[in-house]
Amino acid sequence: MTIDTTGIDTTAREPAVQSVAGGTGTAPQDDVLVRIDKLWTIFGQGAEAFTVHQDLDLDVRRGEILTLVGGSGTGKTVLLRHILGLTRPSRGSVTINGVAAADLPSAGASARMGMLFQHGALFSAFNVIDNIAFPLREQDSLPDAVVRDAAMVKLQMVGLQPEHALRMPSDLSGGMIKRVALARALIMDPPLLLLDEPTAGLDPRGSDEFCELLLDMHRELGLTVVMVTHDLDTLYALSTRVAVLAEKRVIVVGTPDEVVHFKHPFIEQFFLGERGLRALEPLQAPAAATAAQAPHPARSC
Ligand SMILES: Nc1ncnc2c1ncn2[C@@H]1O[C@H](COP(=O)(O)OP(=O)(O)OP(=O)(O)O)[C@@H](O)[C@H]1O
Ligand SMILES: [Mg+2]
């Protein structure tokens, strides 16, 4: 074992990420929007030091919907925070279009990427339209009427009605709150959207509708999406590729079908347990066979 001056074990490890059949793990440089290279995340110091990521590699390709799965506490949300530039790598790098995420100026961040936080609430003291307009208003560069018009466009884009504009967050359903949060994330038309458990807390119907909306947004706006989800229906409905976090790194990345067949205890428990098999069933039905050729596994959410 080799320990460097930071106290990190630098012993050569196995390839940090395995891609499954079809070379799904590597892509030409131009194709990559987010590159995570040999990332270490260590919280605390000395005896308190706690390693979340260790030599983690992952590329996010332009235009894809990449889903991160992993057990609770494996560092999925922290990984999104790295992409946002809110957490600095202890070692290694996270780059967006070749620039270190943590070095990008916070001004204009909403134009680079939108984020739907895991426990993300709206500002409870602001009504719907002011919540949506918030990132644009913060720029302080546009007349208020223009900001309001832009927010109204986004309100309707996420399937809400003009009469919802003046409602307070406490008067909205869970599904409507998610839609407002999505409109706020997209107000500056960012090319990259990060979603942390986007359908958590929604009932099956609300979850299906929100998946449909995300698919529409992805298609219409040409977004690149990085999503964390525990929900297999959401995963199969949306994912172009899936990356699995375990053992402090990405152990495998590939299409949902490829990843399901990768041998690892977490994957077997997550995808092939009772809940996982139930979610997989419609994909394996003969009628789904043709649809499975589409860019997405193409099952309705
Ligand atoms: N700022 C921080 N300081 C110290 N520890 C942190 C910090 N942020 C996260 N952690 C720890 O890092 C680990 C990974 O956290 P993270 O929130 O990324 O997990 P997760 O994979 O998103 O889990 P879940 O599925 O439950 O949301 C956890 O043990 C968490 O307590
Ligand atoms: Mg999390």
UniProtKB/TrEMBL annotation:
Region Disordered, annotated ranges: 1-24
Protein name (record): ATP-binding cassette domain-containing protein
Pfam families reported for this sequence: ABC_tran
Keyword check for Chaperone: no
Annotated GO MF terms: ATP binding; ATP hydrolysis activity
Gene3D superfamilies for this protein: P-loop containing nucleotide triphosphate hydrolases (3.40.50.300)
All copies of domain ABC transporter, residue ranges: 34-272
PANTHER family noted in UniProt: PROTEIN TRIGALACTOSYLDIACYLGLYCEROL 3, CHLOROPLASTIC
InterPro entries: AAA+_ATPase, ABC_transporter-like_ATP-bd, ABC_transporter-like_CS, P-loop_NTPase
Signal peptide segment: none
UniProt keyword list: ATP-binding, Cell membrane, Membrane, Nucleotide-binding, Transport
Domain of life from the UniProt record: Bacteria
